[in-house]
Amino acid sequence: MKVNGKDVEFKEGTTILDILESYKLNKNTVVVEINFDILEEELYSYIADEEDIVEIISFVGGG
After folding, report:
1. Which of 15, 32, 45, 61 has the fewest CB atoms within 10 Å distance of its CB?
2. In DSSP terms, which residues pair with 39 in a beta bridge?
3. Helix/strand/coil (H, E, C) string of the chain?
4. How do residues 1-45 score in pLDDT, each as one tens digit?
5. Among 60, 6, 58, which Cα is nearest to 32's?
6. What's the predicted TM-score (pTM) here?
């Protein structure tokens, strides 16, 4: 699968929450897009497919 434009491998059955944990990201501070569709937080238990394109967007404060 691709995560933020890079080819990565995860074991079969990996959920979006697993991916966020592997990158040490807080689910409350990111937006996840799967195949160009925004995934609602209640669906982060979605099991990612090897063909999926995953984009993880983090919120950054500043001014």
Report:
1. 61
2. 32
3. CEECCEECCCCCCCEHHHHHHHCCCCHHHEEEEECCEEECHHHCCCECCCCCEEEEEECCCCC
4. 999 999 999 999 999 999 999 999 999 999 999 999 999 999 999
5. 58
6. 0.88
